[in-house]
Design brief:
single chain; 238 residues; 6-stranded parallel sheet; 11 strands
């Protein structure tokens, strides 16, 4: 399998294209690929292109797309993941793995016990960084459509906007209802912050129609929960 690269432009078979700075830097400076090397391109709108690296300059690379493959590797049902802010690189880990596990959208949340607060320029920089995490994860795992990652929103806003089957992961709750998961067309999955949800937040979630569940008796770390829970959902959908 050739290396995969994202670039948000329309490609055409037989028409050389100059890639943007992100992909060009990765190809030319980081990987040091050479003209003639095969690669795969996708623009986030579905499908992918087989291509050849034509030229490597100081700041840009030129590629030649050959054949379009109309393949879709998205998950069978759209899952919107709500994950409260996590300290340090563990937030990157949670987003990266959620993308690999097929989340259609990721909402970063602020809850009562969230230990990180982002505002203004700091939030904007983090959001741009998380979007790059999403792109890298898609390049690695084969997704051709980029999951949406939104800036920090209040937990209550996420609850109000949630649609379809609404699930909230919390220790001590019962196991997932396999039938409800299989029947759902959309799923909103809410995972907890590092300090857990408060009693008021749990009550608000139930009032908004969220169903509590847990995976066994273990308490998962905030960055581990999204990947484990998404994997469980796909298993039940199979």
């Amino acid at each position: 399998m050739s290396r995969r690269f994202f670039d948000p432009q329309p490609f055409q078979a037989g028409h050389a294209a100059e890639l943007g700075p992100q992909a060009s830097h990765h190809i030319g400076k980081v990987l040091r690929m050479r003209p003639g090397d095969p690669l795969t391109l996708f623009n986030g709108e579905g499908g992918e292109w087989s291509a050849t690296l034509e030229a490597v300059d100081k700041k840009t690379v030129t590629v030649l797309p050959h054949t379009f493959v109309d393949i879709d590797r998205t998950a069978p049902r759209p899952v919107t993941l709500g994950v409260p802010l996590i300290k340090g690189d563990r937030m990157d880990f949670a987003i990266q793995k959620a993308v690999e596990m097929g989340a259609a959208a990721i909402r970063v949340l602020e809850s009562e016990r969230t230990e990180v607060r982002l505002k203004g320029d700091r939030e904007n920089k983090k959001l741009e960084h998380w979007r790059q995490v999403v792109i890298s994860a898609c390049e690695q795992c084969g997704l051709n459509r980029l999951p949406v990652v939104d800036g920090v929103m209040p937990l209550n806003t996420f609850m109000e906007q949630a649609r379809g089957l609404k699930l909230i992961a919390h220790p001590g709750e019962r196991a997932l209802d396999a039938g409800a998961v299989r029947d759902a067309t959309d799923i909103a999955l809410l995972t907890g912050p590092e300090g857990g949800f408060s009693d008021d937040e749990l009550a608000a979630a139930r009032a908004a129609g969220f169903v509590g569940f847990a995976l066994g008796e273990r308490v998962l770390r905030a960055e581990t929960a999204p990947v484990a829970l998404l994997a469980s959902l796909w298993t039940l959908m199979a």
